[in-house]
Amino acid sequence: DDWLAHKPREPSPSQCCGSGCKPCIYDAYEKELAQWERAKAKQDKSLLMEKKEQSSNSELNPDTFTAFSVSSVEQLTEDTYQYKFELPGNSSLRLSLGQHIVLRESVHRLGHWEEGLLPLSSLRRTAEGYFEVLMKHGELLMLASGTGLAPMLPILQSITDDEEDETFVTLVGCFPTFDKIYVKPLLQDLARYWNIRIFYVLSQETSLEKLPWSYQENTYTGRLNEGLMKTILNSCRRRPFVLICGSSSFNEDMSRYLRAAGVEENSWFVF
């Protein structure tokens, strides 16, 4: 039982975005499991300390999860919280442009650690000695262009995987043509959930007649402009928190449209 308490937990299918990440979350799990099996075979728990030593480094390791302590929590809106995590000394995460992080919480209960993927996390700021993350429940509007869809998928899947999570999500995926839409089967499966809406905006399509009938009702031709943005915002049950990911020009356009629609800047996040 003591060894089982140290055994890494296998990720659930919803924790993998299916985008072919290198390394994948399953790669990290397999590495941790192999380390645990070696330690258990030799009955030497000191071999598990390698993971803890790595967690003290300021640079993130893509193969393992790294432990950080929460130094403060600030409520920004009714359902948005900003978590501040400590970093040793004046170090920083050293993330490159376009990189993102996956968070996993560990809670100590009844003598053992329980872990789970956080329902939604967006890196807000990284600086010397700390980094900040937004946590959001309620209603979300996701604006993704092309491969900007990638960071949205783990968030969507974590919401649908949790039966108690009632976050309402509207995803707007912007692509040149219907053939360029990524992971169509996964998106169609997600759209079947009561709290998930998915719209497509196809900039190079001129007609919806050639599209499958199941896509015609929730697809727009042309570009996601200021007018369409207002239409989508008005279709939300209440003013949502917005996540944006795409090219620099796409991100700038979306931010400008949100300002024009009266959305406050602390109510959106750009990946």
TrEMBL record:
<feature type="domain" description="Oxidoreductase FAD/NAD(P)-binding">
    <location>
        <begin position="142"/>
        <end position="254"/>
    </location>
</feature>
<protein>
    <submittedName>
        <fullName>NADH-cytochrome b5 reductase-like</fullName>
    </submittedName>
</protein>
<dbReference type="Pfam" id="PF00970">
    <property type="entry name" value="FAD_binding_6"/>
</dbReference>
<dbReference type="InterPro" id="IPR017938">
    <property type="entry name" value="Riboflavin_synthase-like_b-brl"/>
</dbReference>
<dbReference type="GO" id="GO:0016491">
    <property type="term" value="F:oxidoreductase activity"/>
</dbReference>
<dbReference type="InterPro" id="IPR008333">
    <property type="entry name" value="Cbr1-like_FAD-bd_dom"/>
</dbReference>
<dbReference type="Pfam" id="PF00175">
    <property type="entry name" value="NAD_binding_1"/>
</dbReference>
<dbReference type="InterPro" id="IPR039261">
    <property type="entry name" value="FNR_nucleotide-bd"/>
</dbReference>
<keyword id="KW-0274">FAD</keyword>
<keyword id="KW-0285">Flavoprotein</keyword>
<feature type="domain" description="Oxidoreductase-like">
    <location>
        <begin position="6"/>
        <end position="42"/>
    </location>
</feature>
<dbReference type="Pfam" id="PF09791">
    <property type="entry name" value="Oxidored-like"/>
</dbReference>
<feature type="binding site">
    <location>
        <position position="134"/>
    </location>
    <ligand>
        <name>FAD</name>
    </ligand>
</feature>
<feature type="binding site">
    <location>
        <position position="136"/>
    </location>
    <ligand>
        <name>FAD</name>
    </ligand>
</feature>
<keyword id="KW-0560">Oxidoreductase</keyword>
<dbReference type="InterPro" id="IPR001834">
    <property type="entry name" value="CBR-like"/>
</dbReference>
<dbReference type="InterPro" id="IPR001433">
    <property type="entry name" value="OxRdtase_FAD/NAD-bd"/>
</dbReference>
<dbReference type="InterPro" id="IPR019180">
    <property type="entry name" value="Oxidoreductase-like_N"/>
</dbReference>
<feature type="domain" description="Flavoprotein pyridine nucleotide cytochrome reductase-like FAD-binding">
    <location>
        <begin position="69"/>
        <end position="137"/>
    </location>
</feature>
